[in-house]
Specification:
By secondary structure, the chain is α+β, with helices and mostly antiparallel strands. The protein has six domains: 2-40 and 161-190, Phenylalanyl-tRNA Synthetase, Chain B, domain 1 (2-Layer Sandwich), CATH 3.30.56; 42-155, Nucleic acid-binding proteins (OB fold (Dihydrolipoamide Acetyltransferase, E2P)); 212-403, 3-Layer(bba) Sandwich (Phenylalanyl-tRNA Synthetase, Chain B, domain 3); 411-480, Phenylalanyl-tRNA Synthetase, Chain B, domain 1 (2-Layer Sandwich), CATH 3.30.56.10; 501-698, BirA Bifunctional Protein, domain 2 (2-Layer Sandwich), CATH 3.30.930.10; 714-802, Ferrodoxin-fold anticodon-binding domain (Alpha-Beta Plaits, 2-Layer Sandwich), CATH 3.30.70. It is built from 20 helices and 44 strands. A hairpin with an 8-residue loop joins strand 42 (743-752) and strand 43. The protein is extended, with a radius of gyration of 38 Å.
């Protein structure tokens, strides 16, 4: 919900900054999510001055251009102008050099000193649309002013400015869905009073156009008010009203609709205007129509009614889905001369059902669904009628119809002082409690030493219990005013929750099982021959069993590798060649002074990653398959992206060493065939060995989230030829150094090694994803970033950029 600071000041004059007001409102429960500035003319015409055309001659090299000299107060400058109506002696609006203009369509243009067809131009004489003050581009603006040359143009063109608060309104605060509602809270916070604009001058001109109103269910529509206004002229709204709506991101439509939108956002009371001449029989009936009845709404869509909507009807059928959306046939058009203005209070339940059934969310339904003030319709009707009469002319051609058979009474809530002290945790004097409540329009009656009765107006639909009254006291008194004491106790969420090793292991087990892996459990005792013949394990680090049962179970394993290979061998020998397995297990080593035990995680992939079928041929396991699994596992544990280092030594044919925050956590790659043959496995095996104990230490128990940027992401692709020794990780690291925060991620979508390039080279096709979280990226910024990247690739890694 958007709230204009300038409009709040109309209710309560204050000197606090927008940031201070936002902080006060947030502390009181109306959370301000952001502050944006609004200007009726973007840029406020900064750098635009009043100038006088001294000379105007034809351009020697262009028939449609003129050479002018213009006095801009600080001197006389040459300007090339293409407008047909430019002439000597005119007072004009001049955008000086280095000024940025914002056109009516939202485009920006920076004025620079330039040469146009060989002639110097130091500024621009502006048309209306170039300044953003109108839509005309027929010629330059010719000013009728006595202001001296060089005077800032914004002294001639009034510019409306305001800060706009974006309030994240909670469902219970229906009363605050307007400028009046927010002003009520500010009255209590600032301890300043205000009054609503007077409607004492409201007078009915005649009774010649009375529309009869009938309400069939007072439960669904507790109050319905309306009047007719005749002889109006529908047109554009005055500038002040258009600026008010634009500041709230609303598009002005016409003076009648704009007034209803103004009242809705100002007072929180939705209104609806019907074309009175289209009301058949001069009668409105508030009722429900049969299920499956067809009805065309203002958006041009034909809808079938559910039978539960509250409809505003005439003698021929529906005119409007009450409180939700008007009908196409009864809407206001440029030819409308008489209107019936509706101001009602509807049941939140019936409006919510109708809006949800049709999937319609409007500003009106937003407020009716939460509950509106039943005492506001007539006042809002008078305010709107007076504004329409002032803006669109006409006369009030009927008295106000006000059907309010059962007035909604104020809520009476008994409150005890001891309960206030208990729930707030601090004693607040009774006089201060009364002052706070009365500043919120909550009357205090029947006071005594024990407590009182709080009388709450019905627009506060969320204040019906003693706890609600106490909350109102506390949010105005200030949460920060309640001191913390040593004997307070509370439950809290720890910043660094204790990590449960069993839960994390189970989470990883679930992850791997979901990807088709089978968990294995093997013996910690193994053959000493594996260490001796592997070529990379140190036999002196074997933990030898003193009383061996056999040579096959003579030592504790230094690695999970060979016990897992034995499992693979057993299955392959039984024609189960496509295998994906993992194991959590301990490994053991000794040194001269100590024995060491670590828990590791091993992952094995061999055979086909997908079996042969009629849909697709079999696909062999490749290194990226295992790498993707390990990368997903790291993300699951919130370890982040590991740093990597190429490895081409036993037991791997090739692979990667993985590092998290400079700590070595494991290796993955393709096993050398002599290693796999030690366990009689004769097919390729991809293997990952991870230090599970260390990963648990480094794992974060906190899941971190960032807000999705509202600005678009941009992709740029780049093809380059590099030496085979250059790894993707080095390219990625270099890219992030050069690209900075704008570069969000990098991908490889093609790799080529072949006879079309040198044997010592390889070709990468890279995708770069750029995004600025504060604004939309321009082509200039994108090109500049990509040029820096290409230059770095050429300089640092000797890349050949394929353009």
């Amino acid at each position: 919900m958007k709230i204009s600071i300038q409009r709040l000041k109309d209710y309560i004059p204050f000197d606090q900054t927008s940031e201070e007001i936002a902080s006060m409102l947030t502390a009181s429960g109306l959370e301000v999510e952001g502050i944006e500035g609004f200007e009726s003319v973007k840029g406020s015409l900064e750098g635009v001055v009043i100038g006088e055309v001294l000379t105007c001659e034809s351009h020697p090299n262009a028939d449609k251009l003129r050479l002018t000299t213009v006095d801009i107060g600080t001197g006389v400058v040459p300007i090339v102008c293409g407008a047909p109506n430019v002439a000597a002696g005119q007072k004009v609006a001049v955008a000086t050099v280095n000024t940025t203009l914002y056109t009516a369509s939202g485009e920006s243009l920076q004025i620079k000193k330039s040469k146009i067809r060989g002639e110097v131009s130091e500024g621009m004489i502006c048309a209306e649309d170039e300044l953003g003050v109108g839509d005309s581009h027929e010629g330059i603006m010719v000013l009728d002013t006595d202001l001296s040359n060089g005077t800032p143009a914004n002294q001639l063109v009034p510019i409306f400015k305001t800060d706009v608060l974006e309030i994240g309104l909670t469902p219970n605060r229906a009363d605050a869905a307007s400028h009046l509602g927010v002003a009520r809270d500010l009255r209590a916070l600032l301890k300043k009073d205000f009054s609503l604009p007077s409607v004492e001058e409201f007078n009915v001109d005649s009774a010649e156009n009375i529309i009869d109103v009938q309400v069939e269910s007072a439960v669904d529509c507790p109050r319905y008010a309306g009047l007719t206004i005749s002889g109006i002229q529908v047109g554009q709204s005055p500038e002040w009203l258009q600026n008010y709506l634009k500041a709230l991101d609303l598009e002005p439509i016409n003076c009648i609709v704009d007034v209803t939108n103004y009242i809705l956002h100002d007072l929180g009371q939705p209104l609806h205007a019907f074309d009175a001449d289209k009301i058949s029989g001069g009668k409105l009936i508030v009722k429900k129509l049969p299920k499956e009845t067809k009805f065309v709404t203002l958006d041009g869509k034909e809808r079938k009614l559910s039978g539960e909507e509250l409809m505003i009807c005439d003698e021929q059928g529906g005119l409007c889905i009450g409180g939700v959306l008007g009908g196409l046939e009864s809407g206001i058009s440029d030819s409308t001369t008489s209107i019936f203005l509706e101001s009602a209070c509807f049941s939140p339940d019936v409006i919510r059902k109708g809006a949800q059934f049709h999937g319609i969310k409007t500003d009106a339904s937003f407020r009716f669904e939460r509950g509106t003030d039943p005492n506001m319709p007539v006042y809002a009707l008078k305010r709107a009628a007076m504004l329409i009469k002032e803006i669109a002319g006409g006369q009030l051609s009927s008295p106000i119809t006000d059907l309010y058979p059962v007035p909604v009474e104020d809520f009476k809530v008994p409150v005890k002082y001891k309960h206030i002290d208990r729930l707030i945790g601090k004693h607040i004097p009774a006089d201060e409690i009364k002052e706070i409540l009365e500043s919120l329009e909550i009357r205090v009656e029947d006071e005594d030493s024990v407590g009182f009765t709080a009388v709450v107006k019905p627009y506060r639909v969320d204040v019906t219990r003693e706890a609600d009254i106490i909350e109102e006291i506390l949010r105005i008194y200030g949460f920060e005013s309640i001191p913390l004491q040593e004997n307070y106790q509370s439950d809290f969420l720890a910043s660094h929750p204790e990590k449960d090793a069993n839960k994390l292991q189970y989470r990883v087990t679930e992850l791997l099982a979901a990807q088709g892996f089978h968990e294995i459990l093997t013996n910690s005792l193994t053959k000493a021959a594996y260490t001796e013949k592997s070529g990379y394990l140190d036999t002196s680090q074997d933990v030898v069993i003193i009383n061996k049962l056999s040579e096959d179970l003579g030592v504790l394993r230094q690695t999970l590798l060979f016990s897992g290979l034995e499992v693979l061998s057993h299955n392959i020998n039984r024609r189960q060649k496509d295998l994906k397995c993992f194991e959590f297990g301990s490994v053991y080593q000794k040194s001269e002074s100590e024995y060491r035990e670590e828990k590791h995680l091993s992952i094995y992939m061999t055979g086909n990653v997908t079996s042969e079928s009629w849909l697709a041929p079999a696909t062999k396991v490749q290194f990226p398959n295992l790498h993707a699994v390990v990368e997903t596992l790291f993300l699951k544990l919130n370890l982040g992206q590991p740093a990597v280092k190429m490895v081409e030594q036993a037991p791997f044919e090739y692979g990667l060493e993985l590092f998290i925050r400079d700590s070595f956590v494991g290796t993955l790659g393709l096993l050398q065939s002599p290693i796999t043959r030690l366990a009689e496995v004769k097919q390729d095996v991809f293997f990952a060995s991870l230090n599970w104990g260390l990963m648990l230490e480094l794992a974060s128990g906190i899941q971190r989230f960032t807000e999705i940027s509202k600005f678009p992401e941009v992709r740029r692709d780049l093809s380059l030829v590099i030496d085979r020794e250059v790894s993707f990780d080095s390219l990625q690291e270099l890219s992030h150094q050069i690209g900075g925060p704008l570069l969000k991620r990098i991908g490889v979508f093609d790799v080529y090694k072949g006879d079309k390039i040198d044997a010592s080279k390889k070709a990468y096709a890279l995708s770069f994803f750029l995004q600025d979280n504060t604004k939309t990226l321009t082509d200039k910024v994108i090109d500049k970033t990509m040029n820096r990247l290409m230059l770095a690739f050429e300089k640092e890694v000797g890349a050949l950029i394929r353009k």
